[in-house]
Amino acid sequence: MGVKKKQHPSVQQFKEFVRKHPKLIQEVRSGTKTWQQFYEEWYLLGESDEMWNAYKPEGEASTAAAAQGNADGPGFMGQMMTFIKNIDMDQLQTHLASVTSAIGSVQQVIQQFQGNKAAPQQQQQNNPFFFQKD
């Protein structure tokens, strides 16, 4: 009657990933992170993210960094450089032009409302039925 639940394929893949990155086990045992946190990061970032190099065995981590060449630098700066390289300048220019146009329209509306505030006071003074309280 030993019914064994079949695990989701992603869980099986994550287990294989942990076998390739044994330092993850040390992190969980030390209480730094939980398996849930590692699983979520693995699911979102993928196996090829540079973050995982720190959890590989010593020899493999240095060869992985050398294989990538570290041209963009590690961590956040490397990600920012990759992001900047992938920006389409034509699209950026189009978006900036539309934002500028929208801001100009909002300014015109504000100026119209400010102009209308002065007008009602003049209308009240010219109105023959307007009586000012003495």
TrEMBL record:
Any single Pfam family the record assigns to this protein: YlbD_coat
Protein name per the record: YlbD family protein
Classification lineage: Bacteria, Bacillati, Bacillota, Bacilli, Bacillales
InterPro entries: YlbD_coat
